[in-house]
Write a structure and sequence with these properties.
The protein is about 45% helix and about 20% strand. It is of the alpha/beta class.
Length: about 270
């Protein structure tokens, strides 16, 4: 039975059933969450790492509640889109298109007054042309901070000093963002999307609202090499995966995962 948990930073703390229950209530009701926890804590050793506990919880969820498993593992699955940030750029561009944003383009090069800039995403916003600076991290414990907000705004200044006429700069990250970065961005009228920010409209909310779950959500069904093969084909979301299978763009070896993906998308 679990008594101690070794955190990602190496600290050891007493296992809290209440804390685990709280994290599961994002996707399960109290009864099913409690049942799952009781089963897991009796099967595990006294001391366990956070990563091992997460893997065990999600594995058991996949057996009984696959839709809940996708939501529960969303943050971790986003970190498997790397190591480079290109897949995250393509992923967020798809979300923008899903919410109706026009003229979305990725990895566009513009000349500023003092430097050449490769912009991760450019699109037409409510008041004109906007760009997005994407900050992708594939490790826990990393915040996007003031430095990233500062250089995103300096891009905006240099680009418009060369008459590019951008109306807004945006900073988007798959991790949490610091209070200093939020304060600066609000002061300069920059857009910010991060994990759980803005409140009730953060990255995780946009994903759930559009149903644009990453293809890495299938990590319990497909091995890492298969996932990488899909992303190399620009199959970044579960929607992409279903479309690719339906159009014979990928082989029959993905059939079982395809059937589950179809079922997941119908319920998520």
């Amino acid at each position: 039975m679990i008594k101690w948990v070794i955190k990602r930073d190496g600290r050891t703390e007493i296992f809290s059933k209440e804390k685990l229950l709280k994290s599961l209530l994002c996707c399960l009701d109290v009864q099913n969450a409690t049942m799952l926890i009781d089963q897991i804590i009796n099967e595990m050793p006294e001391t366990i790492r956070t990563e091992e506990l997460f893997f065990k919880v999600r594995s058991e969820m996949w057996k009984k509640f696959p839709e809940a498993a996708v939501k529960f593992g969303l943050r971790e699955d986003m970190m498997k889109l790397g190591p480079a940030g290109y897949n995250f750029e393509d992923f967020y561009a798809k979300i923008l298109i899903d919410v109706g944003v026009k003229n979305v383009k990725v990895r566009q090069t513009y000349s500023g007054k003092c430097a050449l800039h490769e912009l991760d995403i450019v699109y037409t916003g409510k008041n004109g042309k906007e760009f997005v600076e994407m900050k992708y991290h594939n490790q826990f414990g990393i915040y996007t901070g003031l430095k990233e907000a500062l250089y995103t705004y300096m891009r905006f200044i240099d680009l418009n000093d060369a008459d590019n006429d951008f109306t807004k700069a945006n900073l988007v990250t798959n991790t949490k963002i610091s209070e200093e970065a939020i304060k600066f961005s609000n002061c300069k009228n920059m857009g910010v999307v991060a994990w759980k920010y803005p409140p009730n409209n953060g990255l995780e909310t946009l994903i759930e609202r559009t149903g644009s779950y990453p293809v890495t959500s299938l990590i319990n069904l497909l091995d890492e090499d298969m996932i990488k093969q899909l992303m190399n084909l620009k199959i970044i979301t579960l929607k992409d995966f279903v479309i690719a299978y339906n159009t014979n763009a990928i082989s029959q070896k993905y059939e079982e995962a395809y059937k589950i993906a179809v079922r997941l998308l119908s319920k998520l």
